[in-house]
Amino acid sequence: MGVKLEVFRMALYLTFPVAMFWISNQAEWFEDHVIQRKRELWPPEKEGQRQEIEEFKERIRKQREEKLLLTAQQSS
C-alpha cells in the first residue's frame, strides 16, 4: 500500500499546481475575471479628477512653504 499511496500523493502534488497554472493562464478566464474585477475595484480616472488632485497638491505645497517662511522669519 505504501508505494501506491506515494505515487498517488506525488501525482496529486504535481497535478494541482500544473492545473492551477493552466487555468490561470487562459486568456478568456483572465479577461473575464481578473481584468473585470480590477476595473470594478479601481475604475479608470477621469481627467478632471487628475487636475483637481494636482491643484490640491499645489495648494498644500504653497501652504507649507508659506508656513516655513513665516517660521524662518520669526526665528531670525
From TrEMBL:
Organism: Castor canadensis (American beaver)
Coiled coil segments of this chain: 46-73
An annotated GO cellular component: mitochondrial inner membrane
Keywords assigned: Coiled coil, Membrane, Mitochondrion, Signal, Transit peptide, Transmembrane, Transmembrane helix
GO biological process per UniProt: mitochondrial respiratory chain complex IV assembly
Matches recorded under Pfam families: Pet100
Transcription in keyword set: no
The name this protein goes by in its record: Protein PET100 homolog, mitochondrial
Gene: Pet100
PANTHER family, alphabetized: PROTEIN PET100 HOMOLOG, MITOCHONDRIAL
Membrane topology: Single-pass membrane protein
Domain of life: Eukaryota
Family statement: Belongs to the PET100 family.
